[in-house]
Amino acid sequence: MRHSQKSKGGEDEENGLAKLLSSLFIFVFGFLIGLSVYSNFNFNQYHVPKPSSIVPKPIHFVSNCNRDTSTLEDFIKPEKLLHGMKDKELFWRASVVPKMDEFPFERVPKVAFMFLTKGPLHLGPIWEKFFKGHEDLFSIYVHAPPGYRLNVSEDSVFYGRQIPSGEVSWGSITLLDAEKRLLANALLDFQNERFVLISESCIPVFNFQMVYNYLMNSGHSFVDSFDENTPQGRGRYSRHMFPDIRLYQWRKGSQWFEASRKLAVSVVGETRYYEIFKKFCLPSCYPDEHYIPTYVNMFFGEVNANRSVTWVDWSRGGPHPATYGGSDITAGFIRAIRDNGTFCMYNSNPTSVCFLFARKFAPSALQPLLNLSSTVMEF
Ligand SMILES: *[C@@H]1O[C@H](CO)[C@@H](O)[C@H](O)[C@H]1NC(C)=O
Ligand SMILES: *[C@@H]1O[C@H](CO)[C@@H](O)[C@H](O)[C@H]1NC(C)=O
Ligand SMILES: *[C@@H]1O[C@H](CO)[C@@H](O)[C@H](O)[C@H]1NC(C)=O
Ligand SMILES: *[C@@H]1O[C@H](CO)[C@@H](O)[C@H](O)[C@H]1NC(C)=O
């Protein structure tokens, strides 16, 4: 049978293979024993006990090239104000809040002065005088038109304080974007605790120590926020904002706000109401006069003083407040801004000190103001 023949031939082959394998096994076994005797011999030779001093210390191949040299300092206080972050990235980064209540460094709370300017800071010298000697207690941020370079000397408090900016057109959402950009850049410094928006036509009417204490000790933010049943108030509400924003929640207020860190983080990190304003607060609505006042009323009403600390004169009427020039500046005028006998609330107590800053002042007001600063404003 073809099948059995093949089977017999297979048996012969298997016997031959078994012999070959067994002799191969003996050879390999013998070789391994020889090898192990040889290596044991070597092993013993190399492992005779030696004085421990001669045993080389282990070397760790860690060089400075491998080590990340960034420190906590880089994270809590960026050295340079110019960065490559887009608004969306910046706002996300700025809204990151530590979970721990305590800081692993000595934190001296600072006031962030955020200058929103269309060009030169004509009143800069009065601010320089105001800030002098308080370098550890404030930081400055300047939002100027893109491409504009503030012409200040290296010893100026404004030197190197411009942030990456964007185009701003009056009355549009871009004004709010600039405010958010200032807040976000200022939030990157973890020492900043209070945030005040300043224009190029603003001046301080008290000295730095007074302003610092007033803001740091306040349990409230100073965001002007009021309900006004006029075409310029409730009249600017859009029914398309319903139901996210209801008419009774709608507020109006001066753009020149002062905010706590907590409120600043919230405004920068908030997108839901911002998007509604972007879509429905269109020309003749003015997002800068309604978004923050309305948002604060909805979520931070209890911690808002509902008034601004920046004095402004709307008594002349029209779309813009009064501007004061050189001939308007007298000691009596500035004293009346500091205290005109009218009371406002501060930490639930009445006070006659309601305004820390004032606007609007023309460049011609600078010299007379500098002349008055030491006697009237006490700086
Ligand atoms: C910058 O300011 C200095 C001193 O006030 C002035 O001399 C210079 O012309 C200014 N430069 C520009 C580009 O405006
Ligand atoms: C500010 O207005 C809110 C309502 O939005 C109110 O709850 C709060 O008590 C007011 N703040 C002060 C200091 O009166
Ligand atoms: C004091 O200032 C407030 C707020 O600007 C104003 O409403 C009031 O009329 C002023 N009072 C006097 C007496 O000037
Ligand atoms: C500064 O004040 C002095 C005296 O108080 C006055 O004579 C001088 O004209 C003032 N200068 C300006 C620029 O207002």
TrEMBL record:
What are the protein's GO molecular function terms?
glycosyltransferase activity
Q: Which GO terms describe its cellular component?
A: membrane
What InterPro entries does the record point to? BC10-like, Glyco_trans_14
Does the keyword section mention Ubl conjugation?
Answer: no
Q: Name one Pfam family in it.
A: Branch
Q: Where does this protein have coiled-coil stretches?
A: none
Q: Which UniProt keywords apply?
A: Glycoprotein, Glycosyltransferase, Membrane, Transferase, Transmembrane, Transmembrane helix
Provide the topology term for how it sits in the membrane. Answer: Single-pass type II membrane protein
> Transmembrane stretches, by residue range?
20-41
Subcellular localization is given as: Membrane
Q: Which superkingdom heads the taxonomic lineage of this protein's source?
A: Eukaryota
Q: How is this protein named in the record?
A: Uncharacterized protein
Origin organism of this chain? Rhynchospora breviuscula
